[in-house]
Amino acid sequence: MSIMSLFYRFRRILSVISFSVIFIVVIGKLYCYNVKGNCLTYNTPMVISTWAFTNATAKSWSVLNMTGTAIDAVVAGCTVCELEQCDGTVGYGGSPDENGETSLDALIIDGATMNMGAVGHMKRIKSASKVARLVMENTKHTLLVGDEATQFAIQMGFKETNLSTVESLNLWKQWKSNYCQPNFWTNVNPDPKKYCGPYKPNLIKNSKPEPNLVDTKNHDTIGIIAIDHKGNIAAGTSTNGAKFKIPGRVGDSPIPGSGAYAMNTFGAAAATGDGDILMRFLPSFHAVQAMKNGHKPTKAAQLAIDTISNYYPDFSGAVIAVNKYGDYGAACHGFDRFPYSIANPEHNKVSLLYITCTKSKSYNFNLWTYL
Q1: CB of 93 closer than 8 Å to CB of 154
Q2: Is the pLDDT confidence value at 254 over 60?
Q3: Cβ(322)–Cβ(48) under 8 Å?
Q4: Could you tell me if 79 and 57 are in contact, meaning their C-beta atoms sit under 8 angstroms apart?
Q5: What is the arithmetic mean of pLDDT over 87-105?
Q6: Distance of CA 79 to the CA centre of its chain
Q7: Residues paired with 366 in a beta bridge
Q8: Distance (Å, whole) CA 124 – CA 102
Q9: Closest by alpha carbon to 268, among 114, 67, 61, 62?
Q10: CA distance 149 to 208
């Protein structure tokens, strides 16, 4: 066999090998895009929660590690905060209203089915997140409020109990002795900045919005997002609302798309802060839709926050976001910085993160603290 014949044979072999390699790569790419969601790495299961409520995050993570569902994990984490009275803003004995009474709001969303359940302004029942789950699983409704939510909980086997404590009643008495300052009234007589009610409408209207008193001890909500071993996503919230709120007030926490939102196909988000402002913009829904449109979680959260701050530059709030792959991020405004905690296979323990919040246009960055 001549050298030229060997050369042509060798070239044909190389061509076959090259074609085979290209064929395998193309098939692999098609498999990635059509079967495995673009072959991106899934950092799941995982859990993320607002604020430095690490015991709640740890409980949710333990549930996921015992192959619990995302819904199980969210409810378990929220329940921990309800019992521990996280920062006095979750669970019993916190945030008395103008009458000195504590009420609870909670929300649970199943991102696999888009079913959800919530309670608002629920009195005399401690386990708000568990009741919200039963609204989702045992009714065709989404939200129950007030005394009727309490009656539903009793029917489902929960016991009535006084949600007030010595501390919450003392807080309320101090507020009353301070001429009911601060409060949530506007455009009324007598002047709500100087006097307690009862009030009557002021004929001279001032439509200029005023920011509410919101800081790290009056921020309303724990929000938790979980992705389980099957890739199902759930989100939930629990809160006792704003301190000294007008009786009957329901904030953003139990409102789907505001307090939290989840869709298996894209991801989930949860919001915290000035609930009366947040619920006007549905920031959790906004963040999930931004991820649907291709934005990373941090950018999605920032877009939701920026939309609000453009209208209310003095508001305080934060959004956490997670896509279906377990990538996560957060954005905040008005606070000095915002803590949130995560647990996932990469670290296999609860990690506490901080981001610096925008008050003017600035760059957010993460500082890691491992627990």
Answers
A1: no
A2: yes
A3: yes
A4: no
A5: 94
A6: 15
A7: 355
A8: 8
A9: 114
A10: 34
For residue 69, indicate whether it is catalytic: no
Residue count of the chain, please give it.
371
- Give residue-wise pLDDT tens across range 117-139: 999 999 999 999 999 999 999 99
Selecting among 57, 79, 221, 358, the annotated active-site residue is: 221
Letter for the amino acid at 175?
W
**Which segments are annotated as binding site?**
249-252, 272-275
Look up residue 211 and give its two tokens.
């920011």
Binding-site residues for substrate, in ranges, read: 249-252, 272-275
pLDDT tens digits along 147-196: 999 999 999 999 999 999 999 999 999 999 999 999 999 999 999 999 99
Q: Which residues are CB-neighbours of 133 under 8 A, at least 6 positions away?
A: 71, 75, 108, 117
Yes or no: say if 337 and 355 are a contact pair by the CB < 8 Å rule. Answer: yes
Query: CA nearest 295: which of 322, 317, 318?
Result: 322
Q: Which of 90, 70, 48, 73 is nearest to 366 (CA)?
A: 48
Q: Which phi-psi region, left, alpha or beta, contains residue 105 (left: φ > 0; alpha: ψ -120 to 50)?
A: beta
Q: In b/e form, how buried is each residue of 57-68, taking b as 16+ CB within 10 angstroms?
A: bbbbbebbeeeb
Name the nearest CA neighbour of 342 among 44, 48, 42. Answer: 48
Rounded Cα–Cα distance for residues 162 and 125 (Å) = 8
Q: Which residues of 295-333 are buried (b: 16+ CB within 10 A; e: fewer)?
A: bebbbbbbbbbeebbeebeebbbbbbbbbbbbbbbbbbb
Q: Which tokens go with 212? A: 């509410």
Neighbours of 246 (CB within 10 A): 14
> Residue 348: how many CB atoms within 10 A of its CB?
10
| Distance of alpha carbon 283 from alpha carbon 298, whole angstroms | 13
Q: What's the pLDDT score for residue 347?
A: 79
Sign for the CA dihedral angle at 305, 309, 312, 317 comes to positive
Distance CA 342, CA 327 (A): 11
C-alpha span between 350 and 203 (Å, rounded): 54
Token pair of 131 as six digits: 């009741």
